Amino acid sequence: MLDTEDTCAMHTINHVNLSIEELVQAALDRHEGILAQNQALVVKTGKKTGRSPKDRFIVRDVITEKTVDWNQINQPILPEYFDALWEKAEAYLSEKDASFTSYLKVGAHETLGIPVKVVTEFAWHNLFARVLFIREAQSDAAVANQWTILSTPGLKTDPVHDHVNGDAAVILNFSKRRILICGTQYAGEMKKAMFSVLNFLLPEHDILPMHCAANAGKDHDTALFFGLSGTGKTTLSADPERFLIGDDEHGWGEEGIFNFEGGCYAKCIDLSEEKEPLIWNAICYGSVIENVVLDPITKAPDYTDSSLTQNTRAAYPREYIPLRVMSNNGREPSAVLFLTCDLYGVLPPVARLTQNQAAYYFLSGYTALVGSTEVGQGSGIKPTFSTCFGAPFFPRPPQVYAELLIKRLQHHNADVYLVNTGWTGGAHGQGGKRFSIPVTRSVVRAIVNGNLKNAQYEVLPHFNFEVPTAIADVDSRLLNPTRAWSDQAAHDQCTRELITQFVENFKRFQVADAIKNAGPRIA
């Protein structure tokens, strides 16, 4: 029986707290998607197949005026413009035959978790939220810190009248605890909007919010996997030998870490049952697949087809991963991994970092945009520096998060490693090859099992961090890039180019000299 309520004189039916099964059926009945051979709901998001940074705003008011790092990512908008557009969205939704509401939670923390009311025009968007957020029994009773997400993808914005940049808008209002999403069908905007909310709020509680995956071993040892989309967070954290905590968003405080979410959001491009069996098997009934092309006859997903976008996605509940930490949190991490996809092929598959080097590479956030999650980036691949390994989602100045990271590392002495999941033996497009998933898994296994704690190391010139001389199941020639290249002149040229970019990018940070000097240098 559907839980429904009339929302206006037009008799719009608001379906409240539908189950995953009911939302799947509603999406099918409304022709919002179809079932694939694996019974996952397949949907298309139209021209916006990723986030739209130019359309993201934060209401500038007494709470945010002096605390947000205003820039091209964190764009300001006046409160009165937000209020007018919110009323416009509510009026638009009231004219529809149905809407969908779920009461959920973000943040698996006893006191800092945030109740969130998700109101959507599409049934599948509500399904997405129900899969990705934490599913706890909630009611419409007044909750002091409850946030509301209002999603109306069919409502296109007017740049002149609505004071935004285009036909879509994603706006965060911290004073009213509201998130408005108009003009885009890409469901990931809801997920990342709530991530941004926690990234703003948690530092005031001495919690480091992190764009990272996390898992735990049988002895409850915790590992964190920082990285941008495409570097391997979801793939590497879904480890058949370890217990998943979460694949993307966590907080780290004095009592340990906790997941922000109740589901996973995996990239699907070139997904392989052989190499990624846990993710492959998790994509089934109750999951949502975005922009994946199906075989016209069998309805089997073709994960190699990027004709709609490189950013094909699957959202599935955490419960679909058999090995998981039931409590959705973990102890203080013993290992922290910074995942980077190096296009130049000059970074090693793994390097051990000092605390100052950790701060340097955390602030730098060097990697590559691989099948970018942002619209307008095209299907190409290019290097980027994304502060804190997630610049689009961190509203406060980057130093706030870097200082919290250093504090956590000093208090708990976790080992930090830079792990390159990118190219080796040559640059991208110039004879190099990307590290295979089995090689990277061997590197990660050596880290989380503690085998690299007492390994033999050598210092890599110019970068001045330590690289191990041997790892089980990894060709030792791969461990030091200077030996992995056959053309040393080309290697040295690529090294100079990358280090020059590091140095130029880091000029914008006002940090201690010890951190500045921990970065790479050309003699």
Short description:
With 523 residues, this protein is of the alpha/beta class. The strands form seven sheets. A nine-stranded mixed sheet has the order 1-2-7-8-9-11-10-5-6, sandwiched between helices. Strands 12, 13, 14, 15, 16, 22, 23, 24 and 27 form a nine-stranded mixed sheet that branches. Strands 3-4-18-21-17 form a five-stranded mixed sheet, with helices on one face.
Write the layout of secondary structure elements.
Layout (H helix, E strand, L loop, with lengths): L3 E3 L6 E4 L3 H10 L4 E2 L5 E3 L12 E4 L15 E3 L1 H16 L3 E9 L7 E7 L2 H10 L14 E6 L6 H4 L6 E5 L4 E5 L5 H14 L6 E9 L5 E5 L6 H5 L5 E4 L2 E5 L2 E4 L3 E5 L9 H6 L5 E3 L2 E2 L6 E2 L10 E5 L11 E2 L2 E8 L10 E3 L1 H10 L1 E4 L12 E4 L12 H15 L2 E6 L2 E2 L8 E2 L2 H12 L8 E3 L6 E3 L12 H4 L3 H19 L6 H4 L7
Parallel strand pairs: 2-7, 4-18, 5-6, 5-10, 8-9, 9-11, 13-23, 23-27
Antiparallel strand pairs: 1-2, 3-4, 7-8, 10-11, 12-13, 12-14, 12-15, 15-16, 16-22, 17-21, 18-21, 19-20, 24-27, 25-26, 28-29, 30-31
Helix pairs in contact: 1-3, 8-9
Keywords:
globular, 3 domains, 13 helices, alpha/beta, Phosphoenolpyruvate Carboxykinase, domain 2, Phosphoenolpyruvate Carboxykinase, domain 3, 9-stranded mixed sheet, 523 residues, Phosphoenolpyruvate Carboxykinase, domain 1
